[in-house]
Amino acid sequence: MSTSEMREPTFLVLAALADGRKHGYAVITEVAGLSSGRVTLRPGTLYAALDRLRAEGLVRPAGEEIVEGRLRRYYELTDSGAEALATEAARLQSNADQAISRLRLRPAGGGVA
After folding, report:
1. Closest of 23, 29, 15 to residue 62, by C-alpha
2. Per residue in 16-71, pLDDT tens?
3. pTM greater than the 0.70 cutoff
């Protein structure tokens, strides 16, 4: 992963996998929950992202099983994926802290004269 900022859907997919392996539909559901419904992934979008993240070494396959006649493929975060997620979370936190700090310095009323 490059040192540039991570797109929100990528961040959320990695965050969804941070607590353990999940199959595709579970990742989609988790991303929607983590984003309070702002980010909704379609299966094609998710699997393209997982393929890209796999190629970048951030996620890896973590098994398959048949459930109710359907194949479930599981994915998990790699150590590199966890490191990339932690780095991006720290960057976002630092930016949020700076914004909050500056907002506290804002004059009362803060409107344009």
Report:
1. 23
2. 999 999 999 999 999 999 999 999 999 999 999 999 999 999 999 999 999 999 99
3. yes
∠ CA 5-1-72, rounded to 5°? 105
Query: What is the dihedral angle through the alpha carbons of 5, 51, 71, 33, rounded to the nearest 10 degrees?
Result: 10
Determine which helix (DSSP H) or strand (DSSP E) holds 86, and give its type and residue range.
helix 79-105
**Which amino acid type is present at position 110?**
G
CB 49 within 8 A of CB 75: no
Residue where the block lists tokens 């998990």: 76
Amino acid in the structure at residue 103: L
Q: Residue 42 — left, alpha, or beta (φ > 0 → left; ψ -120 to 50 → alpha)? A: beta
d(CA 106, CA 2) in angstroms, rounded, equals 35
Instruction: Please give the structure tokens belonging to residue 39.
Output: 């980010």
Query: Which residue reads 């396959």 in tokens?
Result: 61
